[in-house]
Amino acid sequence: MTRKALRQQIQQLNHRLNERQKKRLRTKQQLTALVKNTHPFLLVAVGLFAGVASGLMGWRKVYAVSRVGFNVYPLLKNSVGGMVGMSND
Question: Rounded to whole angstroms, how far apart are CA atoms 62 and 52?
């Protein structure tokens, strides 16, 4: 490859890397805002529930169930949420 082609390739990769970093920064900011707006008792309750579920079912089953839940949640939010008037934030 010529020097010019290598330089262009490096610039393209650098641009893609910058876009990924911007996306991760936006996601981090959104998650931080979400956690700040969540009631502390809810966080404690979810942690307690996760601990009890892990103790009873084992962490692998809890992980599998939660992964399915995360995959199904957008579908439920879009289909059922529109019927009951939930916002699609």
Answer: 10
Q: What torsion do the CA atoms of 19, 25, 26, 31 make, to the nearest 10 degrees?
A: 150
Q: Are 22 and 34 in contact (CB under 8 A)?
A: no
Mean pLDDT over each residue of the chain, to the nearest integer: 84
Backbone angles phi, psi at 68, to 5 degrees: -65, -40
C-alpha span between 3 and 65 (Å, rounded):
51
- Residue 45 clears pLDDT 70, i.e. is over it: yes
**Which stretches within 1-89 are classed as H helix?**
3-37, 40-57, 59-84
Q: What is the pLDDT of residue 72?
A: 82
Domain ranges of the chain: 1-37, 39-89
